[in-house]
């Protein structure tokens, strides 16, 4: 695949995100489903496609710390150094909120799970979108996550647009850590 066709796919995905659609894209280990986290109808559609209850909340993925710094307690927090050393990279952190976020993102908690990814497609997607996006595994709940656009299409037919690019080098989905307790959740 040429860089031009990848950029074209990213541009198309961003246009769909702005229209409230669900997209699929490669992450560090599996394909993710994404949408605009602040568009309730988009998140409801993603949960419908995934056949997952909305109460669980979602992980957000961003291109930079700057994209998330207004939302979470990081600057000056006891966990700041550890979190920043792991980003950009394949570590998701559950961080306390600095300002309220919709319950459909947080699952009603006072925290949000967020990752500043170093995957080039995720980076380009979030930069072009100008904000974090939802990142949940591309699968019907309880089934194995997709590891290619072919598998995404098998699960979701034409319900989601898939950016056809390579996964990162991880064999398992990213680790999830709780910043306050410094415990690994996954």
Could you explain how this protein is built, in words?
The chain has 186 residues and is α/β, with parallel strands linked by helices. The protein has one domain (3-184): DHBP synthase, CATH 3.90.870.10. Helices cover 30% and strands 19% of the residues. The protein is built from 6 helices and 10 strands; from the N terminus they run H-E-E-H-E-H-E-H-E-H-E-E-H-E-E-E. It has helices at 3-18, 40-50, 80-86, 103-106, 120-129, 149-156; strands at 23-26, 31-34, 59-62, 91-96, 111-116, 133-134, 136-137, 161-162, 175-178, 183-184. It has a 6-stranded mixed β-sheet. 41% of the residues are buried. Its main location: cytoplasm. It is found in: Cytoplasm. Belongs to the SUA5 family. TsaC subfamily. It comes from Thiomicrorhabdus sediminis.
């Amino acid at each position: 695949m040429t860089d031009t066709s990848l950029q074209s796919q990213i541009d198309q995905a961003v246009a769909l995100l702005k229209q409230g659609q669900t997209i699929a894209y490669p992450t560090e280990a599996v394909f993710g489903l994404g949408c605009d986290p602040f568009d309730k109808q988009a998140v409801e559609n993603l949960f419908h496609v995934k056949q997952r209850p909305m109460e669980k909340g979602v992980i957000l993925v961003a291109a930079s710390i700057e994209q998330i710094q207004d939302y979470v307690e990081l600057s000056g927090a006891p966990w700041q150094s550890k979190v920043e050393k792991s980003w950009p990279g394949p570590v998701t952190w559950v961080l306390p909120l600095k300002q309220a976020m919709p319950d459909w993102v947080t699952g009603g908690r006072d925290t949000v799970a967020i990752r500043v990814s170093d995957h080039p497609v995720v980076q380009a997607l979030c930069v072009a979108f100008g904000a974090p996006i939802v990142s949940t595994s591309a699968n019907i709940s309880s089934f194995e996550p997709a590891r290619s656009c072919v598998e995404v299409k098998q699960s979701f037919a034409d319900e989601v647009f898939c950016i056809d690019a390579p996964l990162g080098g991880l064999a398992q989905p990213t680790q999830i850590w709780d910043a306050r307790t410094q415990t690994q959740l996954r």
